[in-house]
Amino acid sequence: MDTILTSLLAAVIAAAIVTTLANTGTTVYLHRALSHRALTVRPAVAWVFRLVIWLTTGIKPKEWVAVHRKHHAYTDEEGDPHSPVLLGWWTVQKMNVALYRKALSDPSLISKYARDLPDDKWDRWFFGHNKTGLGLGIVILMVVLGPWTGLLAAFIHANVYLAGNAAVNALGHHFGKRPYPNEATNLQWLAFFTMGEGLHNNHHAAPSSPRLSHQRGQIDFGWWVIRTLKATRLATLRFSDVRLTSKAQSASGATAN
Ligand SMILES: [Zn+2]
Ligand SMILES: [Zn+2]
User: 202 alpha carbon to ligand 1 midpoint, in Å?
Assistant: First the structure.
């Protein structure tokens, strides 16, 4: 009995670590650095993020970037790959991966939205082979923790990561606060699970800003990581603070501090 509980605890702790790494890579690198160019990281740091994404998510960066940029281009109108306004929040929550794949089935998507991210030798050798990376990540967990505990950790991580990222697209455009005039919402509890991504209304109001927490009391762990990278000269920021879109600026009562 003790052994089962110990294995379960080890799987939960390992999954929490892996999901945190995956969420950090997603929000800091895929989202804020690549999709919006809100920060630029040193090549060695970019390589580490690419490795983390490769081992923990099965995502090809240019594909994620293309789908996400299309979401910003058509937010909550016809053409948005995952809009709760068009599809209902529950459909987006449960079908997020299918909607992502459907968006990628458009052969012009990458050339239209991620032309600035051509494959390099690392993509050709490793990072472009996303299933290999995910498989290797699972094998590493199985070797470190033992086969069943490792598999359980991978299972927990996959579910929490996918649910969290779906929630940003689904709940984050339906439930929560809207300090700025856009359909996205702020959910601090979701931001805790997703390294800041839950502050999604703020993000749509200032998409090129590296910081997603705009007001006192809002916590964005991704920004803490970015501040550390900046302090150690491993990253440079496009804007040192929040830069609102003109639409958000002109909204009454919307403040950024
Ligand atoms: Zn959004
Ligand atoms: Zn974005």
Answer: 10
> How many whole angstroms from its chain centre is CA 150?
24
Residue 236: partners with Cβ closer than 8 Å, 6 or more residues away:
39, 40, 230
Span 102-132, pLDDT tens digits: 999 999 999 999 999 999 999 999 999 999 9
**Where are the domains positioned within the chain?**
2-250
| Residue carrying the six token digits 């670590």 | 17
Distance, in Å, from the CA atom of 123 to the CA atom of 141, rounded to the nearest integer, reads 23
Instruction: Give the pTM.
Output: 0.94
221-231 and 2-24 helices, crossing angle to 10°: 60
Query: Distance, CA 72 to ligand 2 centroid (Å)?
Result: 6
What is residue 251's predicted lDDT score, i.e. its pLDDT? 74
DSSP E strands in the chain: the ranges are 39-41, 235-237
Low-confidence ranges of the chain (pLDDT < 70): 1, 252-257
